[in-house]
Amino acid sequence: MAVSSMPIPKLISHLCARARKFMSAQSGNVTITFALATIPIVGLTGAAVDYSRANSARTAMQAALDSTALILSKEAQYLSAAQLNQKALDYFKANFNRPEVNNIVVTPVFNAPQAGSFSLNLTSAATIDTTFTGIWQPNITIGAKSQALWGIKKLELALALDNTGSMSSSNKMSNLKTAAKNLLSTLKTAAKKDGDVKVSIIPFDTTVNLGTSYKDNNWFEYGSLNCSGWWWGSGGCTSSNWKNYWEGCVRDRTYPYDVQDDPPTGSATYFPVYDCGSLATLMPLTYNWTALNNKIDAMNPNGNTNVTIGLVWAWHSLTPGAPLSEASAPATDLDKVIIILTDGENTEAWKNSNNTKVTSSSAIDERTKLVCNNIKAANIKIYAIRVIDGNANLLQQCASNPTMYYDVQNASQLTNVFGAIAQNLANLRLAK
């Protein structure tokens, strides 16, 4: 039987040709497959770029909306709905500089859920045109939310300020005056209308100076009076003519009324008259900001220290009725606060029951502790500031909580301390 066969070299050549065709066909498939696979990769990359742009714009939108909420909160309660809408958009655009963002909408909602409490809710929405994903998604919608909560509670604030001789050193008095005036300026700005914020100023050393306008009241104690050594006194000063010589100062009341706010209704509760020296008169609660600033200027350092009497008269200034009657009755929309500032240890008080001085610091400290506790029990907050010297433990315990105690090591820090307290009292916060 005859068998035909292809020469080996020709067969190899034929097989090689077939292989080249096969390989050529496979190469084409790979190219097509790669091309098809590239489409989603490019799409995903483009989408990532577009969403990154949108996220960046949304972050800027949130920052602008937060700023708008803070700015607008200062006037929101006085605006009509149309004014609120327009100002919200204007403030937002002033803080948002992203030209690629279109169709901006800002929606404000103002509420007053309870007396002295307010909220402003802002929402914003806009669109940003896409680039890589424009075929199936021409734009991306972005948005943000912000809420400002603030309390425009009325505030009655008493500043019990050490005016003793040691305040003349290390620039303490000059820095105190600057800091106190800055605090007044902040509170004046925070007040939405006259009377929302009232301030009293109680300069103290071992006494407090009411001023002579109170002299005809029947709640002064002068039975044990010896005014011959008074600043303006003379041998002719007696218990019958003391009003002619008295400059307005009082010392501690008889225990326990020296650490209490009981009104002067009987001899034990009366205020013993005493010499003033150069101590500035107190200023009862007022919103006369010019007079308050002038009172700060009038303070001069002199004399010894009795923190107790500064605190108790600050307390008197925050309660209605004698001896100082400018305060309002307690209310849910009213905060009452004392700032006590001193730079030294208690050195001199008065034991009126036997008409003697008390010079034991520890004994006077016990009186200070009692008045601090009594004030806090009356729902009055206390900020305590120690300037370089003084009983740190006593003052820290006196403060309503540890965050309300300040230990100032350099008098120049007083401006920052009073600024921080003023902002806390203004009570504006961004919620979310």
Structure in words:
This protein folds into 2 domains: 122 residues, no CATH class; 277 residues, 3-Layer(aba) Sandwich (Rossmann fold), CATH 3.40.50. 36% of the residues lie in helices and 23% in strands. The chain is built from 8 helices and 16 strands. The strands form 4 sheets. It has a 6-stranded mixed sheet, sandwiched between helices. Strands 1-2-3-16 form a 4-stranded antiparallel sheet. The chain has a 4-stranded mixed sheet with strand order 6-8-9-7. A hairpin with a 2-residue loop joins strand 1 and strand 2. The longest helix has 66 residues. The protein starts with 7 loop residues before the first helix and ends with a strand.
Blueprint (SSEs and pairs):
Elements: H1 8-73, H2 81-95, E1 101-114, E2 117-129, E3 139-151, E4 154-162, H3 172-190, E5 197-204, E6 208-209, E7 220-221, E8 249-250, E9 271-274, E10 283-286, H4 289-297, H5 307-317, E11 334-342, E12 349-351, E13 356-358, H6 361-377, E14 381-387, H7 392-398, E15 405-408, H8 414-426, E16 428-430
Parallel strand pairs: 4-5, 4-11, 7-9, 11-14, 14-15
Antiparallel strand pairs: 1-2, 2-3, 3-16, 5-10, 6-8, 8-9, 12-13
Helix pairs in contact: 1-2, 3-4, 3-8, 5-6
Strand content: 15-25%
Spatial order of the strands forming the largest sheet:
10-5-4-11-14-15
- Total individual domains: 2
Shape: elongated
Q: Give the second-level CATH assignment, the architecture of the largest domain.
A: 3-Layer(aba) Sandwich
**CATH class division of the largest domain:** Alpha Beta
Report how far the terminal alpha carbons are from each other: 99 Å
Derived from helix and strand composition plus strand pairing, the structural class reads alpha/beta
